[in-house]
Amino acid sequence: xxxxxxxxxxxxxxxxxxxxxxxxxxxxxxxxxxxxxxxxxxxxxxxxxxxxxxxxxxxxxxxxxxxxxxxxxxxxxxxxxxxxxxxxxxxxxxxxxxxxxxxxxxxxxxxxxxxxxxxxxxxxxxxxxxxxxxxxxxxxxxxxxxxxxxxxxxxxxxxxxxxxxxxxxxxxxxxxx
Length: 177
Hints:
The chain is α/β, with parallel strands linked by helices.
């Protein structure tokens, strides 16, 4: 059995978590986005937005967490594992803010490869800000561009998920595995 590690990527507020939750309800193994967890932990320590205050530290924590998710996905019994965001997202966000980063970030993206990448485009009608999501919709669009550029630089073909109701989005993903 070939393991398929499938990513859902896209800018903030594009519906990744909703789609992932829908896939999980159908019985698929799904790993959530970990940046909310890292942000929430920093907020408990009094740092409102760790990514804005210490972007490299935040990115290092994300990189470690995403590598751990990738390795854990390999040990799952299920043939398909869906993950909300991948290792190259860390590099894309650092490009977005114009930050330099150690080579190990790029190397990690080359070393850990995914089977399929589904990208959810910016969608203003569903975009919502909250405690962990500080970006405006305009910033989400710019981040989307950085994600596309970064993943393509790793050689991935991105499959764009249509802006549609949840069932249509899920069926599109499942039919394109």
